[in-house]
Amino acid sequence: MDDANTDVIQGTMDLLILKTLSLQPLHGFGIARRIEQISRGVFKVNPGSLLTALQRLERAGWLDSEWRDTENARRAKFYSLTRTGRKQLDVETADWTRRVAAVGRLLKTES
Amino acid sequence: MSLWRQLSRGLRVLIHRDTADRDTADEVRHYLDQAAAAHRARGLSAGDAERAARLELGGETGVREQVRSYGWENTIETLLGDLRYAGRRLRASPAFTATAVLTLALGVGGTTAIFSAVNPILFEPLPYPQAERLVALTELHRDGTGFPAGGTFGMYREVLQRGRSFDAVAVAKPWQPTLVGSAEPERLDAQRVSEQYFRVLGMSPIVGRDFSASEDRLNGPKVAIISDGLWRRHFASDRAIVGQHVTLNGDPYLIIGVMPPTFENVLAPSAELWSPLQYDMSQGNAWGHHLTTIARLEPGVTVAQAARDFSSLGRAVLQEVRPETYDLLTQFTATSMQADLMRGVRRALLAILGAVILVLVIACVNVTNLLLARGAYRRAEFALRAALGAGHKRIVRQLLTESLLLSALGGIVGIAIAAVGVRALVALSPVGLPRLGAIRVDVSVLLFGLALTTVCGLVFGAWPALQAARSDPQRELQHGSRRTAGGHRGARGALVVAEVALALVLLVGSGLLLRSLQRLFAVSSGFDGAGVLTMQVRVSGHRFDADTTTFRFFNRALEAVRRVPGVIAAALTSQLPLSGDRDEYGVHFEETPTRRAETYGAFRYAVSPGYLETMRIPLRRGRVFDEHDGIDAPRVAVISASLARARFGDTDPIGQRLRIGPPNAPVYSIVGVVGDVRQLSLALNESDAVYVPATQWFFADNAMSLVVRTRGPAASMTPSIRAAVWSVDKDQPVVRVATMDDVLAASASERRFALVLFEAFGLAALVLAAAGIYGVLAGSVAERTREIGVRAALGASRRSIVGLVLRNGLTLTGAGITLGFAAAVVASKAIVAMLFGVSRLDPATYAGVIALLVIVAAIACAVPAMRASRLDPASTLRAD
């Protein structure tokens, strides 16, 4: 497991974030942990990349953010999906499915 | 939506940077806290959890920086940071900044001003649709001076009927009618034009209509088209003016159209009214050269084709008609109208443009020099920054930002200088500079100035930046002291050499022009203009239809002027020397036993008795006119010495007969020969002239120049002399009032214009070069303080130290002079056309300029040399 590649596949970070947030609003670490848990540790998320991606998605209008106070008197920034974000998730999901199917077919014919 | 978010969020970050930074910090902190908490939940101690989280996620600062660097606003922020830093650096050395900005501003401002002035003339197309299809049809005479003669109506008519290359053809001549309306009578600048004039230019009236073919006939209807300016000034922009009559020269003229405000009449910029030519063929001057001919080419026809067409057509007409006013070797040619307009000024303008570009180059060299010196001074600073981890790229970018800021400042000040300079240029501009009205600092010129500054900034920012980036921080820090000589001195020396060379080129140019002007004014004009006042008096209106009325008016006006106290002598002439008047006729000499009949082109002066005496034109043979040579007396003529020599050689011309103009013109007997007078220009030795009494000419000229020799200053007599003319008839316009000295000076205005500019540029170049030499030597003395101290301590005398510095400076100057000398020899070709009576290789000019440069360089060297000699060896050595 130590040598396994745990980087998020290039270009899928947006999809992973959007999907994660479609269930419920979360803060940055929450998103990262959810991705790691659901992927069963296949993906480890780099916080710098994640937070930058969150800014980008927010500016694109797919996410909204809100500061909430947390239990230990710190502020946390919670992200939620906007309506256009939801549409974007559908678009990206369809796109991803199509590609995975294509790659799968290719691999099958090879063997 | 998302673009809007991009902009608004970015702006919010820019404006509330602190809040944004705190938000980022909080978010990252929270992330790490949560990560640590997750580790604790798996049973790690607080400290271990914190460490594990950090290990896993990287340092907090790193994450924060990564998040913070997202967004377009950060690029701007970095730039602003660089700019702020550059601004601080420039403020910290105000002397350097002021010198660099002013040097640049002068270079850019000067170039922009000159470019503004020459752009509409040399580079912009004429302000007409498909201006490239406009041509001037010109005729060059065999003995011509290169100045084309005017066109003739006869040739125009032939081109109109037979020319195949032309879409439209037109002729025009100047006209100065007096407009009488509700207000004061006003003399207008106007043109009589053939029917297709506006069609040739591709313009049409914005109100009303263009001329029709039926209106351009002898005794056709009196109609006029007016300019937008006249429409506003005189008729309050009233559209109803079309269809109404105005009174011009006593006749009612129907206004049929108003030209648009955008219409620029390049052939006669001051003309405000146009009326059909309605040419009178019966007067026998259909083949007289006094019209301007222009044409619009058929689509697809080139200027060269049109020139061939016009040439063969012209030759055919000469064969068939054999008009006496034409020389059989006349060349007919078509040139683009733009080339024709700038014919007289093109070379001068290009030379001036070249000169100002040299000034700009010198300015850039000087600023590069300043930046290099500064770069050397700041090596330790760069070395320190490099040692602290600033990459080469970062340092280069910082230096480039600094020089771009410098050039932007220079550009802004330069544009202000350009705005002032353009006004000065227009005020200074020579008589006959075309398209003067179009000269302004326009957008394209502004962009030119800005592009220039930017390129300058990049060019002279690059060198010091590269030098600084190449340097090895280790060594620099060790040597940290500015007392060691740097390797860049070679580069700076090369720049000084270039500056001196360029300055020499400019100074040689201005020297040659100065000597030309001196030579020119040393040429004898052939008359004595000192203390002579001149003004042009015109008659207009039907009262003067009969020639006798005109003669009577001029005669009475002249008598009135002669009675004015302070007037020594006064006379009238149909054309005034050096005033721009050009009135040439074919002078036909009858056959004699020894020579066949011949025709010479000569200036025709219809004068009152006393003209030759008033102008003090010397009598060589025979007699001048007197009161007896009146309207009914035998016709007599006086010819110039050059014409007498050309026709009669050494034999006596007195009593010989000649005819002037058309074949049916009367015959005159030669009664006298007078000295030659320069009519067109002091530089042109074209003096064939014939003088006749005005009353014996076959028509009455309606504009005569009054020449008045006065006691005391001529200009102060203007009011009383004008009053004397108006005492005879208060309605006749008096124009072109000037002393003969002014006329003389104005005749050389193009050369003077070029000279003034070259002198200004030469001076600027000299100052900049001196500043460059001073800067390099002062810098080198400062750098070599320690070395000089050691030399002094070892017993070098003050003299030898002064010699050391002087030798250094004069070596650079000498190299610059050698290089500049070679460059000037080549570059002076560009101004050959403007030189007069002096070779472009004139040794005296070159020697004078070199001496001047050596003296100035020596002065620039002296100050640092003295400073070096006064260095105290003890204190310089202690300082280390």
Please tell me about this protein's structure:
- The complex is a heterodimer of chains A (111) and B (880).
- Chain A has 111 residues and is α+β, with helices and mostly antiparallel strands.
- In chain A, 57% of the residues lie in helices and 14% in strands.
- Chain A has a 3-stranded antiparallel sheet with strand order 1-3-2.
- In chain A, a hairpin with a 5-residue loop joins strand 2 and strand 3.
- The mean pLDDT of chain A is 85.
- With 880 residues, chain B is α+β, with helices and mostly antiparallel strands.
- Helix content of chain B is 52%, strand content 15%.
- In chain B, strands 1, 2, 3, 4, 5, 6, 7, 8, 9, 10, 11 and 12 form a 12-stranded mixed sheet that branches. Chain B has a 6-stranded mixed barrel with strand order 15-16-21-18-20-19. Chain B has a 4-stranded antiparallel sheet with strand order 14-22-13-23.
- In chain B, strand 3 and strand 4 form a beta hairpin.
- Chain B is elongated and about 135 Å long.
- About 1% of the residues of chain B have low confidence.
